[in-house]
Amino acid sequence: MEAVARLRNNRYSPRKMRMVADLVRGKEVQDALNILRFTKKHPSKDVEKLITSAIHNWSAKNEEGSPDDAGLIVTTIKVDQGRVLKRLRPAPFGRPHKIRKRTCHVTIVVDSKKESEN
After folding, report:
1. Minimal CA–CA distance to 35: which of 27, 7, 56?
2. Could you count the other beta carbons within 10 Å of the beta carbon of residue 103?
3. Closest to 110 (Cα-Cα) out of 27, 38, 14, 42
4. Banded model confidence at residue 114, pLDDT cuts 50, 70, 90
5. Is the pLDDT confidence value at 117 over 80?
6. 35 by DSSP, 3-state: which?
7. Using only C-alpha atoms, what is the Rg of the chain?
8. For residues 106 and 17, is the Cβ–Cβ distance under 8 A?
9. What would the mean pLDDT of 59-69 be, rounded to a whole number?
10. Averaged pLDDT for residues 105-110
11. Coil, strand, or helix at residue 100?
12. Global pTM exceeds 0.85
């Protein structure tokens, strides 16, 4: 049985978040958490929280099993573009210059090894 966790309108750009997401895609949950703890990229903290949230969601669905025994893996991690905050900054000769502050949506699906092999 799979569990899903979502993070909406995160203040990191999708490009920077995808670099972190590629590190943990397809890994076991404990390995993914260890990779994220020692990664210097700033979005890794948010992805780490999101994976722990997905683990808790899985344990809420499967009350009889423990996450350690199930061998959970990150089956899917998807990063999409969120809303864009548009701001203006002064440019030379008093002209306005657009600044786009991008956000992203992250979706993580965690599943046990035994069920994903079937």
Report:
1. 27
2. 17
3. 27
4. low
5. no
6. helix
7. 18
8. yes
9. 86
10. 97
11. strand
12. yes
Q: Residue 108's closest CA among 36, 42, 21?
A: 21
Position 89: which residue type? R
Cα 11 to Cα 34: distance, rounded to the nearest angstrom: 23
Read off the pLDDT band of 65 (50, 70, 90): confident
Query: Which of 80, 116, 117, 86 lies closest to 101 in space, CA to CA?
Result: 86
Best CA proximity match to 109, nearest among 13, 34, 25, 38: 25
Phi, psi of 92 (to 5 degrees): -60, 150
Query: In b/e form, how buried is each residue of 64-80, taking b as 16+ CB within 10 angstroms?
Result: eeebeebebbbbebebe
DSSP summary character for residue 28: B
pLDDT at site 116: 55
* Strand 3-10 to 96-112 pairing: antiparallel
What is the structure's pLDDT at 36?
97
- 3-class secondary structure, 9: strand
CA distance 38 to 2: 27
- Asked if the model's pLDDT at residue 115 lies above 70, the reply is no
